[in-house]
Amino acid sequence: MKVIPGPASQKLGRQVAELLEAEAVHLAFKRFPDGESYIRLKADIKGEEVALIQTTSPPQDTHLMQLLIMIDAAKDLGARKIVAVVPYLAYARQDKRFLDGEAVSIETIIKLLQALRIDGFLTVNTHEEDVLEKFEVSAENLSAIPILAQHLMKKDLKEPFALAPDQGASGLAKEAAKVLGGDYGWLRKERDRLTGEISMEKKGLEVEGRDVVIFDDIISTGGTMATASQILKKQGARRVFAACVHPLLVEGAKDRILRAGAEQIIGTDCVPSPVSVVSVAPLVVEALAQRGS
Length: 293
Ligand code: R5P
Known about the structure:
The chain has 293 residues and is α/β, with parallel strands linked by helices. Helix content is 30%, strand content 27%.
């Protein structure tokens, strides 16, 4: 197998190649002055099985386009089998027609990937796992929650409590609690579909004097984590940590969360960022190895 680390996941891709003891295919890539992407694969991949690693964090549309171009080029250059590893799958939150007339964007992305005839698909903690059923090829959703929780174990947590900022993420908190020990729970969150404004309330959670870790799949603007952190601090939580798989951190999210009382933000390299201290490389390697690719 050869690994192609895409422009958006160079470091992670190289780590995966190293752990697999596979060749990392070098790319020449650039953006033209008008914004278009250029990609050249600098290795012979004819007849090879390849794992192409490219996250689709911001700028999502550019990274998606690069992913599509690379898959097509790899196919065209004779790759025998292509597994697309997309640690952060953009547009996954638009998996329904929430308001009349809305595009179900994630379905468009999946149709494009299918049309390019990938042979397999891997992602990490995608927003709603069910969406992967739309793939005709084998598509797997890995979870980085246990390795995030293991990292948090180093923080010497007092009476740890794993919290999800909404019921949809309660499975993440449950998974984390298995590693952290202690209980888990979730807040009630509602988001105005038009303004994006969120409201949250805490019901029956005992967090006073405890160290609370909030687990979510994504931190985007940080509004969710900041509101949750504030509520927890008001309820007397001793320390609050904000953990997520995909730290998009747009619009000053980091400052917003820290100002709200969280001690630290911890994320994974599914999305490269200053808080991406946990690597999903071993997870990806294990999944690729299990596929026998
Ligand atoms: C939404 O349901 C997701 O799980 C995240 O909670 C959300 O995307 C976070 O967005 P923000 O950081 O902008 O509040």
